[in-house]
Write the C-alpha cells for this entry.
Amino acid sequence: MTTDLPAWITVGAKVAVKSLPAGYSRAQFSFPLVERLTPTQIVLSNGVRARRSDLRLTGGTCGELLPFYDAQVTAARARIRVGKLGKELAATFGQFPLDGDVRSALALLDQTTARIAAVRGQIARLAEET
C-alpha cells in the first residue's frame, strides 16, 4: 500500500470531490481545498477525508478525489454553469409582464443574449484550463 500522492495534491490546492450520494443518479461535485495531509488521509476544507492510498472518500461516502482540471471535472463545472444560467433566465423571463410592450421584450432578449455570451465565455475558459 503506497501513500505517495500525485503532484496535484498539496496543502492549499483546490481539488474536486466526486461523490454519488444515495438517491442521486448523477455524480455530485464539490471543490474544496486540501487543508492538511496526515500519514493516512487527505483532509479537505469541507470536512471530507480521503485515503492517501487510493484517493477514495472515507466515512461510508462513495466517491473519490480528482484534479480540479480533470476533463470530467471541467465538464461537470460546465454543466453546473449552464444549469445556473437556466435558472437565471427562468427567473428573468418570469418577471416579464404579460402586458409588456415590444421594446421591453427586445430589451429582455438583449439582456438574455448578453448573459448567454458571458456564460459561453466562462465555459470556453474552462475548456482552455483542461
User: Anything to note?
Assistant: The chain has two domains: 15-67, 71-129.
